[in-house]
Each structure stands twice: as structure tokens, then as C-alpha cells.
Amino acid sequence: MTEPAKILVVDDEPQLTRVLRTGLKSHGYEVRAAADGLAGFETFSDWHPDLVITDLAMPNVDGLELCRRLRAISQVPIIVLSAKGEEKTKVEALDLGADDFVTKPFGIDELLARVRASLRRANAPATTQMTATVLESGDFHVDLESRAITVRGQPIRLTPKEFDLLVYFIKHAGKVLTHRTLLAALWGGNYVEQNEYLRVFVGNVRKKIEVDPAKPQYILTEPWIGYRFDPGER
Amino acid sequence: MRRPVLDQRWAGYVVAALSVFTLTLVLKIVGTHINAATVSLTLLLNVLFIATRWGSLPALLASILAMLCFNFFFLPPFGTFTIAATDNWVALLAFLVTAVTAGQLSARAKKRAEEAELGKREIERLYTELRDAFGRASHAEALRQSEKLKSALLDAVTHDLRTPLTSIKASITTLLDEVRGRVNGKPIALDAESKVEMMEVIDEETDRLNRFISGLIELARIEAGELQLRRRWGTIDEIISAALARAELITRQRRIELDVEKELPGVRVDERAVSEVVYTLIDNAAKYSPKGSTIRLTARRAGDEQIQMTIEDEGQGIPTDLRERVFDKFFRATRDGDITKQPTGTGMGLAIAKGIIEAHEGKIWIESGAGGKGTRVLFTLPIGDEEVAEEPQYSVSTIERR
Q1: What is this structure's pTM?
Q2: How many CB atoms lie within 10 A of CB B183?
């Protein structure tokens, strides 16, 4: 077995860090905890964990600031713990580069699923992105040079913008992408408030790739936040 | 609306003419030997009356008619409009000028007075309108503030309910995972110690939820003014010992220093409630001070009518600007005030303590501890008044004790 993945839990609630430490350890992860963003950042710098789970509301350096500081020095996957009513902060965290979120209260399985997905994503794309001309992910095969895409082995025809959108999704599979992030990536900074643009394009892409566009299985909607792409099992 | 105005206007002229004729008639009947000066003054008086009552134009009519009547009936030769003596011409002219001028002046004065009255009424109306508008605005502002406060309180409450729930849910699902893993033949590594830890978390967090809910109920009761104090005669010693006994576990790693003045008078208080306050303050002192430090409790007389208690710790203290706010419900210096420390309470303890002390007509406040370090919470309790004691037997026992 390979080295256990190292997870840093940052939360000011000692009882929760206690539970997460035990819960995650029992699934084979190595865990350290920090009580606020400042301590979290210090531990990160010393220990170089593979994943960070952080609360948003904390004294001193809060979760948002931690995301900002971590992104300045690292691409480590970040999962944000948020509560209902913190939607704005949550979206802000995702915009700042957090990868995923779990809403409190949560079951340990839910958190573990997100942890696994984030770790997989962090490890896997490095190889696919290296080849540069071909993207292979789940049910999708993309030739970036000839701009050809096949889904479940079937070729599909996309407009240039639809192609860019789908490639962006594939490259960031599993990660929660906010409306703002997607708009900025595909249309540039002036369009970040034009959510309806995105809705139209996502709708069109869904019609071409989904088995049942009314019940999408690839491009999943995260209400009021954005989308998450699931490339499907291969 | 228009008709009465028209009538009013004509009425002025009619009255002007009638009054002049009637006066002339009366003067003629009263005596032929009447002095011309008296006649002219009487007629002038009438012009003034018409002017103030009906305005300038009827007054002008009255002036001219009066002049004609004066000339016709009272200036010789009588019964003609001719005048014999030259000085009578002068008198007639003087009469006319005086009548017209006085009439116009008084009519104008009346108009001014009316305008002033109208202006005053307009100002009053504007004032009332403004006052109402201000009233409505400040009411709306108060409503908005109270809505804001309500939503802030709701946020605080939901956060405090959800935090223990999150720990409970995470613990219980971890335990479930372990059981299910065993059943599925995919066991996970959760040793006995970890299992106990998860269960401890669940146990502690359910207690925490329960404490929070009890606190909420108590706060609601205090705010509704429904705090039922069961006042009895008791001693500060008993109150402190009860609180210390309850706090034994949490103060195990602190030194307790007790300094209670001898011969303290009895107090007529709700002992359970005051003991709760003392417990809360000891609990806070223990929570926010390092292990091995000292918590100092003192009680002494403050003047003839009060007892003052202090609970002091050697922690990091509370900044001056937060010393009042910590008594606000759900305010926590550790979370809301940039003080970094791990333990957090419910944010209700001090609010409840304040409610209890104030219900006893006492006061509670915070100072720096000895040498400017740590936190010192002080509260006063009035020594009860023996005469208003509800149960006579307690009064008797207190008198004996004193």
C-alpha cells in the first residue's frame, strides 16, 4: 500500500476536529488539526498535506483568507465546510479556489466521498494534462488538436464555444465550478455577471452529450453556486 | 362653495348702505339740534366697522354715502347738496378723506391679520405633516433595526444549534460505518478507544445542545419579565458553597481563593438563581484562564444596603470596549471580538446572569483584574428589607443570625 494521504483539518470547533480526526484516521488517512486559519497555514507550510478541509467562520484568519493564502502557494485540494445561510461565503471560497464544499451537518460518508474525489482529481489529471493533445476522462475522449470529442464512443459536434466549455469541464472534473469562475474562464472578466449566457450554453452542451438532458449525469447543477462535471465511469 | 362667497361680497355693500342710512335716520330722529361733529364721528365709526368687517370696497361705499348723507342732512342748508359756509366744505372734505383713509387702513390691517392667520395655520399643518413623516421614518428605522437584530440572533442560534449537531452527525456516521463495514466484510480501522471517543463526543454534544436550549428558555423568560424569583433569606456563604460544589469538576485544575467578609448580613434573594450566577462566573473564569492559575472569589459589604461579590481570574482579560457587549445575548468575545481562545460557551451565560442580578435590583459589571491583568466580574445585591419579608419565620431567623 502506498503512503496514506495526509489531510489537514482546520476548524475552531474542538469537538468536530476530534471527530474528523478519528473518522478520517479510521479510513486510513493521516490527519492533523488546526484551530484557526493562521495555525492551519503554518501546519500546511511545515507538513505539506495532500488535502485541506477547512471551516469558513473562524477567529483570526478565517476560511476565506486561508483559501486565498493557500492558493497563492499551492494547488492543494481544499474542501470547505459550510452551513446553510453561508452561501455567499461558500461561493466566495470556491471563487478563491476551493475545490468542493460539504454542508453542515454532514455524514462522514459524504465527507469521505468528497475527500476521495478531490484526492483522485489532484493525482490523476497530472498525467492526462501532460500529453496536451489528448484528454481522456471517463466517457469522454477529446483530441485538442483536431477539436474532436467523442462521448461513450460516439462523436459529437460542438460549436467552438461549446467545445471550450466542455473541455474546461473535463479538465476540472469533479470540482465545483462557480458561475463566476466559468464565465471568467470562457468569456473573460466582463461577463462574470451574465449567468444566463452560461445557462444557454450548458443547456446546449447537455442536449448533445447527455443521455437524458432533463436528468443530466455529466454536467450537474449545484443550485445557486454553479456546476460540477462528472465524466462518468469508464 | 362659490355662491356663499358671492353673497358675502354683495352683503358687504348692502350692509354698508343700510348702516349709513339707518344711522342717518336715527341721528335725524334723536335730535335736530345734534352737533355736526358728533354726527361725523358716528358715521366715521360706522365706516371703520364696515372696513374691519367687510373690507375696503364696502368701506369706500360707506364713506361716500356717509359723506353725501352728512352733507344732505346735517350741513346747512339742510335737504340739499349745496353747502353755505366755506368752513363746512372743509369739514366735509376732511370727513371724506378721514373716512376713506381710515376705512382703507383698517381694511388692509384686517387683510394682513387674515393672511397672518392663514400663514400660521399653514405652518402648523406643515409642522404636523413633518412630525408625522419623521415619526413614520423613525418607526420604519426601528423596525428595520429590530429585523436586523432578529436575523443576527437567528444566525447565532442556528449556528449554536448546528455546531453540536455537526459533531454528533459526524460521530454517529463514523460509528455506523464501522458497524456496516463489519457486516459487509469491509471492516474499517476504528479501535475501541476511538469508538468510545465518538460516543463521548455524542454524549457531550447532546448535553451542550440541552444546555443551550435551557439557556434559551431562561433568556426568553427573563426577557418576557417572567423570571419568578423565589426570594428567601439566605447567606452568601451558602450561595458560594453551592456554586463551588457544582463547579468542582471544572475548577479541578485551578486554585480557588475565597475571601468572604465575616459577619456578612443575610440576603433576601432567590438563592438558586444567584448561585447560578456565581457558577456561571466561576465557569467563565475557569474557561478563559490557564491551568494552574488562581480564581479569586470575594464577598463584602458595600455601604449599608449592599453586598458586593467579585469573581476574578488570571486569564487574558476582556478589552475595555467589549466589557459591556459581553452581557449581550449570543455575544462571545472569543468569536465576535477577535480574542483567540479555543473554548466557547453558549453566549448566554452572562446575559442570563445580568438578567438575574438586575431582577434582584443589583448591578453587574466587568473590570480588569489585579494589576490590570485578567478579568474581574463584580455584582452587587441589595440586602433584603426585613419588613417586606413574605415568610415571617425567615425574618425571625435572620434577626437571630444578625
Answers
A1: 0.62
A2: 9
Q: pLDDT by residue (tens digit) across A185-227?
A: 888 877 777 888 889 999 999 999 999 999 999 999 988 889 9
Q: Say yes or no for a CB contact (<8 Å) between A60 and B178.
A: no
The shortest C-alpha distance from B326 to chain A (Å) reads 16
pLDDT digit string, tens, across residues A136-172:
888 999 998 899 999 999 999 999 999 999 999 998 8
CATH code for residues A6-123: 3.40.50.2300
The domain ranges of chain A are: 6-123, 125-229
Chain B hits for A17, CB-CB cut-off 8 Å, are none
For residues B245 and B211, state if they share a domain: no
User: Residue B85 and residue B48: Cα distance in Å, rounded?
Assistant: 28
Q: Tell me the CATH number at B185.
A: 1.10.287
Largest pairwise CA distance in chain A = 54
Predicted-assembly ipTM surpassing the 0.85 threshold: no
User: Domain for residue B133, yes or no?
Assistant: no
In-domain check, residue B136: no
**Residue A62 CB coordination number (10 Å):** 21
Residues B146-174 have pLDDT tens digits of: 787 777 777 778 888 888 999 999 999 99
Contact across the interface for A13 and B190, Cβ inside 8 Å:
no
* Closest by CA position to B214, among listed B268, B280, B169, B148: B280
Can you read off the three cell numbers belonging to residue B319? 478589552
Residues B145, B372: Cα–Cα separation, whole Å? 36
Domain A125-229 indexed as CATH 3.20.20.80: no
Each residue's pLDDT tens digit, B22-81:
888 888 888 767 777 888 888 888 888 888 888 888 888 888 888 888 888 887 777 777
Helix residue spans in A79-159 (DSSP H): 87-95, 108-123, 125-131
Cβ within 8 Å, pair A22-B198: yes
- Interchain contact, A19 vs B174, CB within 8 Å: yes
